[in-house]
Amino acid sequence: MSALDAFSIVPGKPVLPMLAQPAAGVAEALARLGSAVFDWKIDGARIQVHKAHDAVRVFARSGSDVSAAVPEVVDAVRALSACELILDGEVIAVNATGVPQPFQATMRRFGRKLDVERLRAEVPLAAFYFDCLHAHGRALIAQPTRERLAALDAALPAAWIVPRLVTGDAAAAEAFCDDALGRGHEGVMAKSLDAPYEAGSRGASWFKVKRAHTLDLVVLAAEWGNGRRQGWLSNLHLGARDERGGFVMLGKTFKGMTDELLEWQTRELLARAVERSGHVVVVRPELVVEIAFNDLQESPHYPGGLALRFARVKRYRPDKRAEDADTIDAVRAIHAASRARAAGDAPR
Questions:
Q1: CA 5, CA 3: separation in Å to the nearest integer?
Q2: Which of 211, 231, 233, 347 has the highest CB neighbour count under 10 A?
Q3: Which one is predicted more confidently, 112 or 291?
Q4: Strand 125-135 to strand 138-139: parallel, antiparallel, or no bridges (unpaired)?
Q5: 3 pLDDT above the threshold of 50
Q6: Which CATH architecture has domain 3-210?
Q7: Beta pairing class for 84-93 and 45-52
Q8: Cα separation, 61 vs 58, whole angstroms
C-alpha cells in the first residue's frame, strides 16, 4: 500500500477488510509466521466502525452502512474519549450471560432497519474489536500489527477487545484455541506481529484455524431435486475463486439442508438463473455458502484437480460477496498440508 493510500484512510470512508487464509492447525500457522498473535475467531458479522467526534458510522464488510441496525454499537463508540477512530471487529448476538448465539441469530439483527428497538431487546448484540486502522488523526494501516494493537488497547475498554495471546509456542497456542472452542467460538486467528493491514487482500500474514474443515465457496449451479425434494433446487455445484477472477468447481452437495433452507435457496437461485439445461440451473456466481467437509481428494473430473469429500452445507453467508470466497490456491494448500501430515512431514 502506498503512502497516498494510507493518507486517504479517514473516518467515514470504509476500507476493504483484510482477509485470512485457512490453516490446518496452530502448528501450521506458527510454521508460517513464527511467533504470532492469536485471537478468538468469533462467529459473528464483520463490522468496521468509524468515529469522527460525535459522528459514528458502522459499515458491513461489503461497505454498506448498517449504523441504523446496530444502535448499541453506535452509542457505545460515541461515548469513547477518542476523537477519531476506525475499528475492525465483529458483532455477535449473545444471550443474557454473554454466551455467543448461532450465526443465524446475529444475521436476524444485522442489517435490519425495521423494528430495531424491538429486536434490540429480543436479540442483543455485542461488538468485539481486534484491530485499529486509524486513531487520533493518524492512519495506522501501514503500521505493523503490534503497533495497531497498542492503539486498540489504548482506545478501548479491555472487555471490548477480542482476547488474544502472543506466542511462538504450539502447546500454548493449542490451549488458547481449545479455550476459544470451549466458549462457543469457531477457533482462532493467527496473525503476523510485523505485517501491515492489507486491505482487501487475503495475504500470507493472517490465518484462520478451525477444528472442522470449512471453506467459503460460491454456488455455480444447482440441480432440481427428486422424491421429497421435488420442486426444490437441491444439489449445489460449488466453486472456489481462481487467479483470473473466475471460479473452479470442486464438487457438489445436497447435504445439510433443512426444508426452510431449500425453500430460500430455490428462490434465491432462480432469481440468479442464467441458463437451464435439463435438471441443471446455472446461476450468476453471487451466493457464498460455507461448506464443511471431511477431506480433499485428487480428482480428474474437476478442472482444479481436487474434489471435496463428504461436503455439506453449514450455512449461507449473506455478509460475504463472491470476491470474499476462498481461492483454489488456498484449497490446494489445505490438500498439500493434509498430504504432508499423512506422510509425517507436517510441522507439529
A1: 5
A2: 233
A3: 291
A4: antiparallel
A5: no
A6: 2-Layer Sandwich (3.30)
A7: antiparallel
A8: 10
Residue with cell 432440481: 224
Residue 101 is classified by DSSP as P
Nearest Cα to 180, choosing from 26, 331, 341, 337?
Answer: 26
Question: Of 108 and 163, which is predicted with more confidence?
Answer: 163
From the candidates 13, 41, 252, 255, which is the catalytic residue?
Answer: 41
How far apart (Å, rounded) are the C-alpha atoms in residues 23 and 190?
A: 9
- Measured between its terminal Cα atoms, the distance across the chain in Å is 34
Residue for grid cell 469522527: 52
- Sequence ranges of the domains in the chain: 3-210, 214-342
Pairing verdict, β 21-23 and 206-210? parallel
For residue 263, the SS3 value is helix
Q: Are 108 and 119 in contact (CB under 8 A)?
A: yes
The CATH number of the structural domain formed by 214-342 is 2.40.50.140
**Helical spans, DSSP H, in the chain:** 3-7, 26-33, 71-78, 103-109, 116-122, 145-155, 170-182, 259-270, 328-342
Q: Which amino acid is at 6?
A: A
CB 79 within 8 A of CB 54: no
Q: Is 41 a catalytic residue?
A: yes
Q: Which amino acid is at 316?
A: Y
Residue given cell 450471560 in the structure block: 97
Strand partners, 87: 49, 132
3-state secondary structure of 151: helix
CA atoms within 13 A on the CB side of 256: 15
**At how many degrees (to 10) do helices 170-182 and 26-33 cross?**
130
pLDDT tens, 140-164? 999 999 999 999 999 999 999 999 9
Percentage of the chain exceeding pLDDT 90: 68
Cell output for 70: 446496530
Query: Cell numbers of 169, please?
Result: 509456542
Calpha distance 288→160 (Å, rounded): 29
Residue 186 · residue 167 · CB < 8 Å: no
